[in-house]
Amino acid sequence: MKRKVKYIINLDLVEGLAEKEKKELKKVTDKFAFRTNNYYNSLINWNDIDDPIRRIVIPTLEELEVWGKLDASNESKYTKVHGLEHKYPDTALLLVTDVCGIYCRFCFRKRLFMNDNDEVARNVDEGIKYIKDHPEINNVLLTGGDPLVLATFKLEKILRALAEIPHVRIVRIGSKMLAVNPFRVLEDSSLLKLFEWFNTKTDKTLYLMNHFNHPREITQEARNAVRLVRETGTPLTNQTPILRGINDSVDTLQELIEELSFIGVPPYYFFQCRPTAGNKTYSTKIEETLDIIETVRLRVSGLAARVRYVMSHETGKIEILGRTENLIFFRYHRAADPENAGRFMIFKRNPSAHWFDDYTELVEEYRVEMEEEYV
Length: 375
What we know:
Blueprint: E1 7-8, H1 19-29, E2 36-37, H2 38-41, H3 52-57, E3 79-81, E4 84-88, E5 91-95, H4 125-132, E6 139-143, H5 152-163, E7 170-175, H6 177-180, H7 183-186, H8 189-201, E8 205-210, H9 220-231, E9 236-242, H10 250-262, E10 267-272, H11 286-299, H12 302-305, E11 308-313, E12 316-323, E13 327-335, E14 344-348, H13 357-374
Parallel strand pairs: 5-6, 6-7, 7-8, 8-9, 9-10, 10-11
Antiparallel strand pairs: 1-2, 3-4, 4-5, 11-12, 12-13, 13-14
């Protein structure tokens, strides 16, 4: 690319960090991979140790706290062939790369960036065949890693293969590239032509599912990239986890979803941060987060307010609906088990809960206590 955005995988090359910090944080990068670039680093206020953009990409010692597990949603359970997950009947997920524009410190797939991981399929032929053989699959999500890291000709090969499958009607690309390196779009007209081809020359729709976490990522360059993608006929949406110290405030979330909806990237999901190893410092309490989100909804237009607050749990996508003084309400938005489809659930509130299991474990503890008392 003309601008030659430089990628950085060595903390020693991060100019904004003091030498002492580089030395201290090496123990973190020895465990969890590190990757940033000079464009994204330019968004950081290096004088603020708690700068939200810094927290997204620069390691912290708190990541070493033992908490969670690498595959928090047990994605391996739904892997059908190498590089393909099939959790919901109509949706297949293709892991097409194990590289991103940056490595978000809160990534729920950080296991992909470890040397002993082999979940990603660099040759997607087996996954394409699986999709062909399953006519119930009508939409495919390309993810990883970030598919826009791939060279355009490699991405084109995948999209053309999917375009030839009659029952596939939607292809989604999950990407943070417009936030971390918009020059990937601004300086590659062939990528834009590929998007336009898919949306105008096939009977299918290509969606770009963006990952803006904070309003400061919506730079002029990012806005220009959004405009160019929209001009190809590609619908854009945005999804972000709610992250402690990054976007877990009413004002920040309001600004984020309003600015995105103003430029044609309406919000899609707010995710509860998954209990992935290393992520405790980024996780928020569900009930506090619910209150923040509901306050934001009252301040924004219907387009922005339609965002759903969900957890990507092993059993499905669970929406957090609301609460009363004593109870909290959930519903399966998507369920892996058909018996759970649309299931509505009511639990006693647990103000310290970070994940769905924190509620179900309380129910199990109560059941055991009652059985013991009865005996």
